[in-house]
Amino acid sequence: MHFITGNHIPRRTFLRGLGATAALPLLDAMIPAGRLSAHNRPDEGPTRLVCIEEVHGLAGCNEWGATQHLYAPATTGKDFEILPESALTSLRPFQDRLTIVSNTDCRQAEAFTTPEIGGDHFRSSAVFLTQAHPKQTQGSDIWVGTSLDQMYAQRFGQNTPLPSMQFCIENLDQAGGCTYNYSCAYTDTISWASPNEPLPMIRDPRVAFDMLFGAGGTPEERAARRASRKSILDWMAGEIAALKRELGATDRLRMDRYLNNVREIERRIAAVESRNTSGEERELPEAPAGVPDSFTEHMRLMFDLQVLAFETNMTRIISFKTGRDADNRVFPESGSDRPFHPASHHGAREEAVLEFNKICQYRVGQLPYFLEKLQNSMEGDASLLDKTMVMWGSPMADANLHNHRRCPLILLGGANGLLEGNLHLEAPDATPMANAMLWALNGLGMEMESFGDSTGEFSLVSGSSAATQG
Question: Is the full-model pTM beyond 0.85?
Answer without folding.
Answer: yes
